[in-house]
Structures are given as C-alpha cells and as structure tokens.
C-alpha cells in the first residue's frame, strides 16, 4: 500500500547514544544511499562531530560498491550484521517494532485507511523522540541529543478533527470560514501542523482549532437539511472519503530487511488491487429529514476544585499515624509508639528472625523502615498502637538477594466449591488468620539488614543477618507459601488442582 506521498518503504537512522530516530520515506530501495548521504551531512552539521560508525543489515542496498566507497572516503566504519541474525541489530530491531506498535494503535484509534501509514510512522517517530526511555534511565531522547527540554503543549491526538481557516482570498462572501480536516502530524518545526483535507484530497499545513473527541468517521457522515413542504432530489456534495478497512491498517514487516542498532529500514508494503470507493451516494431528502451533526466538546467554563488551606490539612494529620521514626518519638503518644516498637522487636527475637553479626566484606546491608498503624474498634476509638519493621525490598537485586518471587493464591473456583460443599452438607465453616505470617518463612539466600532505627547496638559494622523472611522482602510471600504448604501436606491435606 502506497502512502499519501507515494512511498512504499521507510528508512530509519538511530543514534546509538541517545536513541533518537530519524525517518525517511522511499519509493524504491535504491534510494537508501542518497538518503544516507543526506542524513550524514545533516547530523554532522547539527552536532559539529563526525560520523564514525554505521551498522546495518547485509541487504543489497548497503553492500553496493558506491556505498562502500563513500564510507571509505569519509572514514566511516560500516558494520554489517550476519544474515538472518537480528540479535546483532538489537537497538534497531526493537525501535522498528516500537514504531509499528505505535502506528497500529494510532491508525486503529483514528480509524484511518491504510494510505495514511506514512503519516502515522512520521508522527510515531516524532513522539518517540520526545518520550522517556527505560534503557536510558527514563531520560528523554530529544533532551540527550540537543541538551534542551522539549515542549509538549503543542501535542495533539493523531487523527482527530481540526478546522483549518480559509483565507479571504480563497472564499466567497457566504462560504464557510473554516473547513474540517484530519490532523495527521507535525511540521518540520513545532510551529505548524499537518492536516488532510478530505475535500481537496491533499495535505495542508495550518495552526487551527482542534476537536480531539472527533475522528474521520464523524465528518464522513452525510449532513441532511430540512426544507419544509419540499420533497426534492438533492445531490449530497460532501467530500468523498475512503471506506474503512477492517484489516491491519499498517504495512507488515520483513525480518530480513530490518535495520540495526544505529540505522534501520522498514520493509516494503505489499500493494493491494483496486481503488478506494466513495462512500457517500446522493441522498433523497424529504420534509421529515433532520439535521445530523457531530457532537462537539463542551466550551463551558471549567470550575476548579476547591483548594484546602494548610491549616485544614493539619486537621487530617493531627494525632494521626507517624510516617517515620522521628515523627513517632516526637509524637505526644511517644511512649505508646516506643512500646509498640519494642513489642515488635521482641516478637522478631522470639521468632529468631535475625541475629546480630558483623557485616562480611563484599556484602551490603538492606535498609529498613518502621511502619506505624492505629488499631481502632467499631466506634473509631483507638485500641492499640501497632509498629512493624519492614525491609526496603526495592534495594534487592535479582540473582543476589532473591531468585523466584512467585507465590500462588487461592482461586475463586476453589472458594466457591468449598462454600458449596459446606452449604449442601450442612457443615460448619471456620476461618483462621496466621499472625505475622511472612515471618514464618525460611530464607535460602544470605541477606543482611541494617539494625532497626532507634535500637542500634553501638557498632558501625554490626548488622542483622536474616534467617527468616521479613515484611518487605520480595521473596517473603513465596517463602511463607512453602512453609504453609509443607505444614498442610504433613497433616494429610492435598492441594486442589485449580490452585
């Protein structure tokens, strides 16, 4: 399927350091060399640095003599991947996949036909460059490349309806001052937008009003106008738009021609037979016809929600639960919170959860935190001050502090079966709760934790070596499940097949 501009391929170049992506559209693959030369000049002018290495697949468009000669002339090292080995081009392979995922979602949401795939690809790359990257610690690609923060206030929903202004020179006195268009992307800079004019069937640039809750289907609908006591044949002059296709709205990929870590090319789009058909026939309008117009976003003024003052927020926290150890010892119920923490430590020592040892060389100790909770009765009266020591499990590293963390839970199927048996056989049903359940799981890994805040023994090298699970550890649920399963199995119980 050809794009609106007549292209059948797209070519991507990716900077390996910033992951920024540039896209070019091709009619034939032999245009790759010309676009590479254009890209080469552009990036060197923009950065003031030299292009040193280009990595691509082993396609014929990259192995020509003129391509190799150009790289040798400018001192560019050209690395070609082994055929049918996409893992050598990991960055480019993943970027091409990400682009196509964006394209499919955008075109499906906007309900646009396949020829718009080129505009969707260009917009997807534009948005990717302004998005944070997980591989780069959530840094924005454009910020890494330019050193400046990109703006986002100009971003709009792809495929939404916009009304482009018609200048006085192009309209008559009674003509509409704006025409409905479809937003299909951004200009070369952030000062303009690209629109599809369904009446003239061309791409225009403008900067006008959007209606992001409307799509192309909303302006496809014929508009019928009532004329009293007249029944006449009226020719509907609404723009002829393409019929929506239910198939994938994007070109498919060819694994053997995808690009590499620094530079990638998307695959050819298979042309389809036949032309899009107009979907708006002439309409016979009678006196009973009614006007059908698309809904529009309300322009009613927004009333901001009430902002509470600092003194009002203090009412929520006064006499509440401390957020840290320092708040607990500064609280008016300091003695009760200290007693709650001591009770928690006594419980841990009785359970032999940890022992005080010297931190071995090369090992690190996880941090911990006190969590405070007020236990209240049905009337809202405080009946107990509760403190719990938890490990900051987010500091754990997979393969060092834990391996598996999955822990099964009972399914609703099993619960329904038990309840059904109890009801049908007139049995008694009891429910139990295991106090501090996670503290009963044995640990397989060697894990060290800093001493509880406020209860440290005077030594910098002394830490807690955990022998049993503690709340906050990633493997705590799994270890408790193992202990519970072993106990129930020793009593002759069997696990249900559903669980």
From TrEMBL:
Keyword set, alphabetical order: Hydrolase, Kinase, Metal-binding, Transferase
Q: What InterPro entries does the record point to?
A: DNA/RNA_pol_sf (IPR043502), Integrase_cat-core (IPR001584), Retrotran_Ty1/copia-like (IPR039537), RNaseH-like_sf (IPR012337), RNaseH_sf (IPR036397), RVT_2 (IPR013103), SH3_retrovirus (IPR057670)
List where Acidic residues composition bias occurs: 248-262
GO terms for biological process, alphabetical: DNA integration
Annotated region Disordered: where? 235-289
One GO molecular function term of this record is:
metal ion binding
Q: Name one Pfam family in it.
A: rve
Give residue ranges for domain Integrase catalytic: 1-158
Protein known as: Cysteine-rich RLK (RECEPTOR-like protein kinase) 8
């Amino acid at each position: 399927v050809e794009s609106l501009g007549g292209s059948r391929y797209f070519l991507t170049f990716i900077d390996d350091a910033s992951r920024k992506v540039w896209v070019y559209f091709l009619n034939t693959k032999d245009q790759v060399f010309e676009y590479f030369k254009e890209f080469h000049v552009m990036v060197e002018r923009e950065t003031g640095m030299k292009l040193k290495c280009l990595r691509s697949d082993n396609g014929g468009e990259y192995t020509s003599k003129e391509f190799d000669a150009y790289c040798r002339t400018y001192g560019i090292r050209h690395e070609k991947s082994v055929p049918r080995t996409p893992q050598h081009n990991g960055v480019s392979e993943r970027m091409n996949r990400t682009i196509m995922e964006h394209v499919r979602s955008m075109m499906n949401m906007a309900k646009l036909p396949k020829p718009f795939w080129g505009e969707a690809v260009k917009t997807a790359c534009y948005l990717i460059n302004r998005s944070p990257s997980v591989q780069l610690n959530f840094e924005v690609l454009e910020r890494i490349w330019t050193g400046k923060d990109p703006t986002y206030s100009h971003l709009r929903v792809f495929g939404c309806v916009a009304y482009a202004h018609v200048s006085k020179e192009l309209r008559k006195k009674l003509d509409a001052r704006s025409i409905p268009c479809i937003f299909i992307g951004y200009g070369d800079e952030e000062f303009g937008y690209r629109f599809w004019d369904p009446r003239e069937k061309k791409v225009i640039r403008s900067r006008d009003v959007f209606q992001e809750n409307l799509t192309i289907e909303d302006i496809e609908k014929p508009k019928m106008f009532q004329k009293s006591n007249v029944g006449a044949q009226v020719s509907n002059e609404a723009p002829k738009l393409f019929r929506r296709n239910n198939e994938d709205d994007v070109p498919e990929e060819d694994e053997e021609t995808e690009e590499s870590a620094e530079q990638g090319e998307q695959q050819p789009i298979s042309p389809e037979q036949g032309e899009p058909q107009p979907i708006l026939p002439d309409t016979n309008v009678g006196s009973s016809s009614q006007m059908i117009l698309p809904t529009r976003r309300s322009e009613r003024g927004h009333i901001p929600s009430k902002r509470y003052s600092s003194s009002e927020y203090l009412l929520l926290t006064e006499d509440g639960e401390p957020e840290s150890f320092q708040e607990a010892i500064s609280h008016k119920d300091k003695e009760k919170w200290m007693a709650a923490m001591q009770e928690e430590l006594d419980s841990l020592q009785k359970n032999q959860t940890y022992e005080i040892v010297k931190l071995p060389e090369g090992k690190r100790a996880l941090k911990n935190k006190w969590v405070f909770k007020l236990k209240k009765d049905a009337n809202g009266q405080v009946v107990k001050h509760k403190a719990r020591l938890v490990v900051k499990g987010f500091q754990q590293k997979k393969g060092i502090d834990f391996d598996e963390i999955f822990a099964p839970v009972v399914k609703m199927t099993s619960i329904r079966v038990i309840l059904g048996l109890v009801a049908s056989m007139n049995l008694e049903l009891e429910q139990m709760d295991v106090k501090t359940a996670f503290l009963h799981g044995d640990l397989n890994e060697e894990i060290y934790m800093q001493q509880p805040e406020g209860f440290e023994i005077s030594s910098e090298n002394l830490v807690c070596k955990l022998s049993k699970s503690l709340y906050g550890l990633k493997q705590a649920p799994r270890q408790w499940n193992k202990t519970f399963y072993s106990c129930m199995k020793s009593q002759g119980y069997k696990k249900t097949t559903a669980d």
